[in-house]
Specification:
By secondary structure, the chain is mainly alpha-helical. It is built from 3 helices and 2 strands; from the N terminus they run ββααα. A two-stranded antiparallel sheet has the order 1-2.
Length: 201
């Protein structure tokens, strides 16, 4: 009986991702998402959903018709202009929150990495000095808090300042979706059709 080498067995073809086969995977989520905690910072990353999550038409795929041949109605043009304004403001709001999240991630990753490194060194030194496996960590914790007191105070001050800077932008962000709904409602039936085209673009 002839036995084939495992290296000579035919390999199964890899499945390739086809964007046209799964269009739903290309559409960004319409709700905020929270991921698993980072092992260093213990913070959960957050994806902040856009006000208009639909993707724009890919520039690599040309439109079959010249869109200039079909002028938009004033209502449709106004809704498109309002959407661009709201989208720009929403993007600025999301980027502001991402910057604060990045600040928190950097601080806690650095702080926790240093803490774990110094704790492990302390444990090794104490075990070597005493010859016992059980190590009293209270002196290390006290020394660590004394050493990092100014860093924590600086971080808290920066965090409070950044949180305060979010109050007015968060209020404006809460009104943007209502502004869009009001603009569509004000335009009536034509507004609903125009909004469907604009949101699907």
């Amino acid at each position: 009986m002839k036995v084939s080498s495992p290296l000579l067995l035919p390999l199964k073809p890899r499945r390739r991702f086809s964007p046209s086969a799964s269009p739903s995977l290309l559409t960004p989520p319409s709700v905020d998402l929270i991921g698993p905690p980072c092992p260093l910072s213990n913070l959960r990353p957050t994806y902040y959903a856009a006000l208009f999550p639909s993707l724009p038409t890919s520039p690599t795929v040309p439109h079959p018709y010249s869109l200039n041949e079909f002028p938009a109605s004033p209502t449709s043009a106004r809704l498109a202009r309002v959407q661009r304004q709201l989208h720009a403001a929403d993007l600025e709001w999301r980027l502001m929150r991402y910057r604060i999240d990045r600040h928190d991630q950097d601080f806690w990753s650095k702080t926790n990495t240093e803490f774990l490194s110094k704790r492990d060194s302390f444990i090794v030194e104490e075990r070597t000095r005493t010859g016992q496996d059980d190590v009293e960590l209270a002196p290390f914790y006290k020394a660590h808090l004394d050493r990092t007191r100014k860093d924590y105070a600086k971080y808290n001050s920066e965090l409070w300042s950044m949180q305060a800077s979010l109050l007015w932008p968060s209020l404006k962000a809460a009104t943007r979706s209502w502004r869009w709904r009001w603009e569509v409602w004000r335009a009536g039936d034509e507004g609903k059709e125009a909004a469907a085209r604009v949101e699907g673009a």
